[in-house]
């Protein structure tokens, strides 16, 4: 039996290929919504370069307000050459940072899944990456990027000294830990916490708190790795991982390394979640200004972000499953956009890929 519900979704198409890939994701959401009796009420707002052009501000207060009053935010990408020379505080990226801060998004979820149809896109050997399905849960608002003191200070000897501080409180560790355990529960039940507790006190506290959370999740198998070993294991034997949880700096690096196991940036979604309120769901790639407006963009990362929104933001796993199945089917049928094209496959544009997805969704219905 399906449960009928209405969700208010804020769309932030942003810049470059953003509007094109958002159109495809919206069509897919509408189609799956019709099938499963879910109603989406979409509202659009501006962010990044588009918002700078409109208001001079990469995150106008009205945009943040609309996001706050929604159930989830589907963001595409921001930035482009046009705004590259603005002072850093007025650049499109500030829109993203402001959105994360404004919505209190402290957990970033980045899946790295090898799709059998695209296995040749990986630079690693087939037998190493075949079957890889990893989720990196990264703490997003604490750690060394935000800890105080920070800055470049003069020393008594007259030279300068650069300082950043890696700091986590118990409550900051607990809240990301809970998201990670719950994420592992929605996956294969294995969680690996990554730290540097052999050297860093902040990591010792991290390991203690994560270990103390474990009894609340008896269904989860918890392990710990030092970050240097985790980096090695990710390229040596990535199949051993299910869910990884780690701090801001280690997560920044490991999530990119994990993503590149797949080799195809146009396929990677992400989610950023807070304690309550709407999460933000967006592809990992940027605004691809080199192909914007040419109907060449791969919309699948955006479509898979919409699936993550259904699974992790709105708790509608069946709808998420259906979208992910449709993506698998179009790939099985050999449809490809330019970025993932290979010999013998059928080349489609962004719109064509959207149409192929709608056809597959229709087929899945029956
Ligand atoms: P990019 O991800 O936009 O593009 C890198 C390369 O991958 C380009 O050749 C592009 O054409 C290709 N590509 C990316 N996504 C694609 C897709 N869906 N389909 C087909 N090809 C795709 O990274 P970049 O070129 O370094 O940055 C371009 C702009 O995007 C910059 O202004 C940058 O600041 C911004 N950016 C934004 C985000 C974000 O919004 N989260 C992330 C990264 C970069």
Automatic annotation (TrEMBL):
Chain residues that bind Mg(2+): 228, 252, 256
Pfam families attached to this UniProt entry: Iso_dh (PF00180)
Q: Where does substrate bind?
A: 100, 110, 138, 228
Has the keyword Transcription been applied to this entry? no
Which cofactor does the UniProt annotation name?
Answer: Mn(2+); Mg(2+)
Q: Reaction catalysed?
A: (2R,3S)-3-isopropylmalate + NAD(+) = 4-methyl-2-oxopentanoate + CO2 + NADH
Which compartments is it annotated to reside in?
Cytoplasm
The kind of enzyme this is, by top-level EC class, is oxidoreductase
Q: Which UniProt keywords apply?
A: Amino-acid biosynthesis, Branched-chain amino acid biosynthesis, Cytoplasm, Leucine biosynthesis, Magnesium, Manganese, Metal-binding, NAD, Oxidoreductase
Chain sites annotated for binding NAD(+): 286-298
Task: Report the cofactor remark.
Answer: Binds 1 Mg(2+) or Mn(2+) ion per subunit.
- Please name the pathway: Amino-acid biosynthesis; L-leucine biosynthesis; L-leucine from 3-methyl-2-oxobutanoate: step 3/4
Task: Enumerate the PROSITE patterns for this protein.
Answer: IDH_IMDH
Q: Where does the UniProt entry say this protein principally localizes? A: cytoplasm
- Name the residues annotated as site: Important for catalysis: 145, 196
Q: What is its EC number?
A: 1.1.1.85
Residue intervals of the Isopropylmalate dehydrogenase-like domain? 8-357
Q: Which Gene3D superfamilies does the record associate with it?
A: Isopropylmalate Dehydrogenase (3.40.718.10)
Keyword Lipid metabolism in the entry? The reply is: no
The GO terms this record gives for MF are: 3-isopropylmalate dehydrogenase activity
UniProt similarity note: Belongs to the isocitrate and isopropylmalate dehydrogenases family. LeuB type 1 subfamily.
Assembly behavior: Homodimer.
Which HAMAP family does this UniProt record tie to the protein?
Answer: LeuB_type1
Any idea what job this protein has?
A: Catalyzes the oxidation of 3-carboxy-2-hydroxy-4-methylpentanoate (3-isopropylmalate) to 3-carboxy-4-methyl-2-oxopentanoate. The product decarboxylates to 4-methyl-2 oxopentanoate.
Could you tell me what this protein is called? 3-isopropylmalate dehydrogenase
């Amino acid at each position: 039996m399906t449960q009928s519900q209405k969700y208010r979704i804020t769309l932030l198409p942003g810049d470059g290929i953003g509007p094109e890939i958002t159109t495809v994701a919206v069509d897919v959401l509408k189609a799956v919504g019709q099938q499963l009796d879910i109603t989406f009420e979409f509202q659009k707002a501006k962010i990044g370069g588009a918002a700078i052009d409109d208001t001079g501000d990469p995150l106008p207060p009205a945009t943040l307000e609309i996001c706050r009053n929604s159930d989830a935010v589907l963001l595409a990408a921001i930035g482009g050459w046009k705004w590259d020379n603005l002072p850093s505080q007025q650049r499109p990226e500030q829109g993203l940072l402001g959105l994360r801060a404004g919505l209190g998004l402290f957990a970033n979820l980045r899946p790295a899944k090898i799709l059998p149809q695209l296995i040749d896109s990986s630079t690693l050997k087939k037998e190493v990456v075949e079957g890889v399905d990893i989720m990196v849960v990264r703490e997003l608002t604490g750690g060394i990027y935000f800890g105080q003191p920070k800055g470049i200070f003069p020393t008594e000897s007259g030279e300068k000294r650069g300082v950043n501080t890696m700091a986590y409180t118990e409550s900051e560790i607990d809240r990301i830990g809970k998201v990670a355990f719950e994420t592992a529960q929605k996956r294969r039940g294995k969680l690996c916490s990554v730290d540097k507790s052999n050297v860093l006190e902040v990591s010792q506290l991290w390991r203690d708190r994560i270990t103390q959370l474990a009894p609340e999740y008896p269904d989860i198998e918890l392990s710990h790795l030092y970050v240097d070993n985790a980096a090695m294991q990710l390229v040596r034997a990535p199949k051993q991982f299910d869910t990884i949880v780690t701090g801001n700096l280690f997560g920044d690096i490991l999530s990119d390394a994990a993503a590149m196991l797949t080799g195809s940036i146009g396929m990677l979604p992400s989610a950023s979640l807070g304690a309550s309120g709407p999460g933000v769901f967006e592809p990992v790639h940027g605004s691809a200004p080199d192909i914007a407006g040419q109907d060449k963009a791969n919309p699948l990362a955006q479509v898979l972000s919409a699936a993550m929104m259904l699974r992790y933001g709105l708790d509608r796993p069946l709808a998420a499953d259906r979208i992910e199945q449709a993506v698998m089917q179009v790939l099985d049928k050999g449809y490809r956009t330019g970025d993932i094209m290979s010999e013998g496959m059928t080349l489609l544009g962004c719109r064509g890929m959207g149409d192929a997805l709608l056809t597959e969704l229709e087929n899945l219905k029956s």
